[in-house]
Design goal:
The complex is a heterodimer of chains A (364) and B (370). By secondary structure, chain A is of the alpha/beta class. Helix content of chain A is 28%, strand content 21%. Chain A has a domain of 194 residues: 3-Layer(aba) Sandwich (Rossmann fold). Chain B has a domain of 74 residues. In chain B, strands 6-7-8-3-9-10-12-11 form an 8-stranded mixed β-sheet, with helices on both faces. The chains are: A alpha/beta (364), B alpha/beta (370).
Chain lengths: 364, 370
């Protein structure tokens, strides 16, 4: 398998084939017009391609409606995307039959946002964790019982204390641990975590994120980690994909995305995170990006971000930018990426973006 | 409690340009109680709220005290169950009659606990307004948003129909709702989350409040929208000279916008100070734990978070002494005595026997990162 470099984070490391290879994924949903809201086709995911290597975490960020959850669900074929290919462990999931798909799903598991909603409220913890094992015909009753205890230990729940409880007798964090135990029960290769910690309190969130990290190290898991919090995604991922209105705006190593964002949208996202310096106590006050995302039913022509983009030019309305690799392993879909000086129709001598290029002003 | 904590805001630059500014308290008798100079707008002292659930007593708020100066923004931060929302609902008189409330809440010198419902109703939505987390559920889905704002305007002024309509449109412009006149005739489901929250703020402003309580008002919104709404709140606070209590779980958000921060845990304030003082010198181990647990952009990929074991205490069976003791790495037997919230440094109060980094004690807060 691919040797994923621990620190710099799987930048196309090695020559092996990726664990997951998604190409030109498209997912669309027709909606009816109702109550003064326009009907049409929601372009939820439009032409998205990416790879995930073994042991690698790919983070996906974006606003509500950017298609990040639809992307995750397209990967696990729930429902099947409209077009494109999803190759998982060398198998094209778009083409395989139900039985083979079930077989593949054993190796790709999902953890959802709502820890209560994703567990049957009437089942006990041991039953909940045993279900995937039973469903895939794993071992016999005795070995399953042992495995369940092992799994509960692994996620930090004492089986003797929590085994007999039902979801309502657990806290949100504990429920999420049960959901994770279910997900790792069959030793999957990939876990799709869709806002898996968003509903948890900060201290509990940190515990669960550390659990994800521990499991990654121990089981060589890959994650497709979806969240709206760019800071969180940055801290857990090797690579980050930024989505806007169903398309990839930028994808690259997480350190690189943070140090040198190439897409104006990524820069705006970074700017809008409120944060505080723990040493000086000084706060970074967010800079608001004006406007709101347009409707995915009727996305703007050309670049979908142009209606809110400070760098937008005529060209952005006429021609949709393609995803291009500008830095090693770092692709951006923008006509005027941030490593180039600010575009101006009549060229003016001003480069507001850090670039060892021309002119006098060099902002940091 | 300790004396003055003046965080008085420079009163705002009152930009009367753009013609959208509120014509101060039109059609409403000026508040008789002028509020003596230097008097805080809100003084909460020893507030306790107890619910009874299934025969068990749940202590949601356990002796909370703070004061809020007029025209300033204060953040109350804490996790679920820390009592941050319950205490603000007590201030709004929005707790169910079964809740046992004791202590004192004075708004502009007037005691609110035990105030007859009739007087409370006048205050609520008038001098004190609130914006909630979920704008979709706070708006009436069957009424056009214009009608909902006009309703609020007429309730709190004696404007006639036409006047109220004009005022409502003006309020929508004040909260920068795009295409306000057109949106006036739309239903909540036709608006985005951010726009709905703007409408909620417009309704809250209808009574020209002197105190606005924003209870997780931006939590359900995207970061970019959150920044827009927070900017709007700050602008309104400055323009209208309104005080804001922002309730949040987000330390970064509090640090970015509030002038004063109160950190709550298990129903009490465990640390409070002017924002920059607090974040530059975090003393309470709980606040410190919160800071270590939030994802930070400057941490390396796959670095671990500082973890605090355990969970917040059961509010019906609080631990003896300091509520954070069972999870605290610095806890000793001393902590079996509840530490009082005391002003240890100028304007900086904390409730802890073993504060982080204050004088001798521990060698800083270990484990910044692995």
């Amino acid at each position: 398998m691919t040797a994923v470099d621990e620190r710099t984070g799987g930048q196309r490391a090695g020559t092996g084939s990726p664990l997951l290879r998604a190409r030109n994924l498209v997912q669309e949903f027709p909606v009816r017009a109702a109550g003064g809201v326009k009907g049409g086709v929601v372009h939820a995911v439009s032409n998205v391609s990416f790879d995930i290597y073994a042991g690698e975490t790919l983070g996906v960020v974006g606003e509500t409606g950017s298609g990040k959850s639809t992307l995750a669900r397209s990967v696990i074929q729930l429902p099947r995307p409209k077009s494109g290919t999803v190759e998982f462990q060398g198998k094209d999931l778009m083409k395989v039959g139900r039985r083979e798909l079930k077989d593949s799903r054993r190796h790709m598991q999902m953890v959802y946002q709502d820890p209560f909603g994703s567990l049957n409220p009437r089942w006990r913890v041991t039953e909940l964790v045993e279900e995937p094992l039973r469903g895939h015909g794993w071992g016999n009753a005795d070995s399953r019982k042992r495995r369940v205890e092992e799994l509960l230990d692994l996620v930090g729940l004492d089986p003797s204390q929590y085994g007999k409880r039902r979801p309502f007798e657990l806290s949100g964090g504990q429920c999420q641990r049960v959901a994770i135990a279910r997900a790792i029960a069959l030793e999957p290769a990939l876990i799709v975590a869709d806002e898996a910690v968003s509903s948890l309190d900060v201290l509990i969130q940190a515990q669960v994120l550390n659990l994800f990290e521990k499991l990654r190290r121990e089981m060589n898991l890959s994650y497709l980690f979806i969240a709206h919090d760019l800071a969180m995604v940055k801290q857990v991922s090797d690579r980050v994909a930024v989505m806007y209105l169903g398309q990839l705006a930028e994808i690259g190593p997480s350190e690189g995305i943070y140090r040198q964002p190439l897409h104006p949208y990524t820069a705006a996202l970074l700017d809008s995170i409120p944060r505080v310096d723990p040493v000086t106590g000084a706060a970074h006050r967010p800079v608001a990006l004006p406007g709101e995302p347009p409707s995915p039913i009727d996305p703007p022509s050309g670049c979908r971000f142009r209606t809110r983009c400070p760098r937008a030019q005529q060209k952005c309305a006429e021609e949709a930018p393609q995803l291009v690799e500008r830095l090693p392993g770092h692709q951006v879909s923008c006509h005027f990426p941030l490593d180039l000086p600010m575009p101006t129709v009549p060229p003016k001598p001003a480069a507001p973006v850090a670039d060892p290029a021309p002119t006098s002003t060099t902002a940091a | 409690m300790s004396g003055e904590r003046t965080v008085a805001y420079p009163a705002g630059d009152t930009l009367v340009s753009e013609g959208v500014i509120a014509p101060a308290r039109a059609g409403r008798p000026a508040p008789a109680r002028a509020g003596a100079a230097g008097e805080p707008l809100v003084v909460v002292e020893g507030l306790r709220v107890q619910f009874t659930r299934g025969g068990r007593k749940v202590n949601a708020v356990n002796g909370l005290s703070y004061r809020l100066e007029p025209g300033t923004m204060m953040a109350i931060i804490g996790e679920s169950g820390s009592g941050k929302s319950v205490s603000s609902r007590a201030l709004m008189g929005l707790l169910p009659p079964t809740a046992k409330i004791s202590g004192s809440i004075r708004f502009d010198g007037r005691e609110l606990i035990g105030l007859p419902e009739k007087d409370m109703r006048e205050l609520r939505g008038g001098d004190i307004a609130m914006v909630f987390q979920d704008p979709a559920r706070s708006l009436n889905p069957t009424m056009k948003i214009g009608a909902q704002i006009t309703e609020a305007v007429r309730l709190h002024s004696d404007l006639d129909k036409r006047g109220a309509h004009a005022r409502a449109v003006e309020l929508l412009k004040l909260v920068r709702l795009p295409a306000a006149e057109r949106r006036f005739h739309e239903y909540p489901h036709q608006l985005s989350g951010g726009m709905r929250q703007r409408v909620m703020i417009a309704i809250a402003l209808a009574g020209e409040p002197r105190l606005l309580i924003a209870d997780e008002a931006t939590t359900a919104l995207d970061v970019t929208t959150q920044a827009q709404i927070m900017e709007l709140l700050v602008e309104l606070q400055q323009r209208l000279g309104m005080a804001v209590i922002m309730i949040s779980h987000d330390l970064g958000l509090a640090a970015s916008y509030a002038q004063h921060v109160v950190v709550m845990y298990a129903g009490r304030a465990v640390e409070q100070a002017p924002t920059q003082t607090l974040f530059a010198n975090v003393r309470m181990p709980y606040t410190h734990a919160l800071l270590g647990a939030i994802p930070a952009l400057d941490r390396e990929p796959h670095s671990l978070f500082d973890v605090t074991p355990g969970q917040p205490p059961d509010l019906s069976a609080l631990p003896k002494g300091c509520p954070f003791r069972p999870r605290c790495q610095y806890a000793t037997d001393t902590c079996l005595q509840a530490p009082p919230l005391t002003e240890h440094e100028p304007e900086h109060l904390w409730a802890c026997w073993h504060p982080v980094g204050a004088g001798a004690g521990h060698n800083s807060a270990n484990g910044e990162q692995r």
